[in-house]
Amino acid sequence: MELKDRIAAVRKAAGLTQEQLGELLGVTRQAVSKWESGQVSPDVATVARLCGALNVSADFLVLGREPVDAEDTPDPETCPVCGRPVYSGICSGCGYRPRPCPDDPGHYALITTQPPVELAGYAQDLVQFCGMEREDADALIESARQDHRPMLLRRGLEKPAVLFLAAHVRRVYGLRIVADRGEPEETLLKKSSALRLPATVTLTERIKREQQFPFLLTLLTVVLGVWIASFF
Questions:
Q1: What 3-state DSSP class applies to 110?
Q2: Which one of 6, 12, 127, 213 counts the least CB within 10 Å of its CB?
Q3: Separation between Cα atoms, residue 136 and residue 127, nearest integer Å
Q4: Predicted TM-score (pTM) of this structure
């Protein structure tokens, strides 16, 4: 995760929109958008205000970690999503902020609904959001493709964690959240959905929109050109 990614992650974990964070800091939504897209970086004073507003340390926001030489630094939690250490209340690996879910004590698993096809990005998602090594991610994907079977991405997750994971990994191959009661993996892969997937734009939809935009822009340009020419 880079600085821009950590700013976006802690903002989302705090439940704030870009506009709401801008209001807290006295800047515009466009300024926050530029930080999160990496176009510009906030200055030192703004970083300090960011840390205060989002309740994170400067070491985490700037460097992605807590100081290792502080004697009173508590042992980090383990992120339930990707398994990495969690400092300052948010995971520096995937951006999840662990929190209890007393209204739903159940556990869930996230599985794919069909084998992945040849599309880049699967392994990257498994590394960042599922905590896998790249070699293991590549091997899992290849095995699923060869055997023409779905994949178990993560299991034993509480509701907030599984919804976070489902919202962040790519959905080209489809996803399903199932109840996890300790069954064997093969049983989990055959279970029906237990939770509705969180709303998000799929990678397929993004690709289609990116392909449609140049065409629509060209069409609009032609229409405007004809309209302007009609006046002469």
A1: strand
A2: 213
A3: 9
A4: 0.59
Strand-pair partners of 110: 154, 177
- Separation in Å, CA 153 to CA 8, 107, 185: 24, 14, 11
| pLDDT value at residue 88 | 62
pLDDT score of 158: 93
How far apart CA 63 and CA 72 sit, in angstroms, is 19
Cα 159 to Cα 106: distance, rounded to the nearest angstrom = 7
Name every residue whose Cβ is closer than 8 Å to that of residue 123 and which is 6 or more positions away in sequence.
134, 137, 138, 141
In the chain (232 residues long), the average pLDDT of successive 10-residue segments reads 82 81 84 89 80 74 61 67 77 77 88 71 82 87 83 92 87 85 92 87 41 43 54 54
CA–CA dist 141, 73 (Å, integer): 38
The token duo for 143 is: 């095995």
Q: How many whole angstroms separate alpha carbon 111 and alpha carbon 49?
A: 40
In total, the chain counts a number of residues equal to 232
- Rounded to whole angstroms, the Cα distance separating 169 from 124 reads 9
Contacts with 214 (C-beta within 8 Å, 6 or more apart), sequence order: none
Q: What is the pLDDT of residue 172?
A: 63
C-alpha torsion 202→204→210→214, nearest 10: -140
